[in-house]
Specification:
With 168 residues, this protein is of the alpha+beta class. It contains one helix and ten strands. Strands 1, 2, 3, 4, 5, 6, 7, 8, 9 and 10 form a ten-stranded mixed sheet that branches. The mean pLDDT is 86.
Length: 168
């Protein structure tokens, strides 16, 4: 009886197994490194949106009005405010006051950046939320607002109705 040694038919199988092992091991090492990097916090944190001081100006009768708030992002990634709604009003949109030749005008804007580790502070002299056809409001009432962010999703707040010139 003759013992058969590994021949040409078994050699390609071993060579293929060795060749396949290299990318599998490299992928496992890369995945392990990425997991360790993320677990250590070095990969950064996503946007962390907080809304502060939401307020809306007391409208004169049925006039449109403006809402203001401060958006803080404690995350390591920027985000973008891409839409606003006022469910109990006729509508809401982002607008910016633009002064040209001493005259101010409103310009609708599609979105507003919220920088990583920074704030977006709305004011009567810059970016605000224009609220059209608001319900009848009195000082101290609350107007619900829905803010839509590119990465952070939806944030619901209630803006307190204040007299113009009053921050609280």
């Amino acid at each position: 009886m003759k013992t058969q040694l590994p021949g040409p038919a078994t050699r390609p199988l071993a060579a293929t197994a060795r060749a396949a092992a290299v990318p599998v091991i490299a992928g496992a090492v890369a995945l392990g490194g990425l997991c360790a990097w993320t677990a250590s916090g070095a990969a950064g944190r996503p946007a962390a949106i907080e809304v502060e001081d939401p307020r809306v100006l007391l409208p004169f009768g049925t006039d449109d009005t403006a809402a203001f708030l401060k958006i803080r992002n404690d995350g390591d990634a920027a985000d973008e405010l891409v839409g606003v709604e006022a469910p109990t009003a006729g509508g809401a949109m982002l607008s910016r006051t633009v002064v040209k030749d001493g005259a101010g005008s409103m310009r609708m804007v599609p979105s507003a950046a919220v920088p990583a580790g920074g704030t977006l502070d709305m004011s009567p002299h810059g970016l605000d939320i224009m609220v059209s056809s608001p319900p009848r409001l009195r000082t101290g009432d609350r107007l619900p607002l829905i803010l839509r962010f590119h990465d952070s999703g939806t944030v619901k707040v209630e803006a307190v109705v204040v007299r113009p010139g009053n921050r609280g």
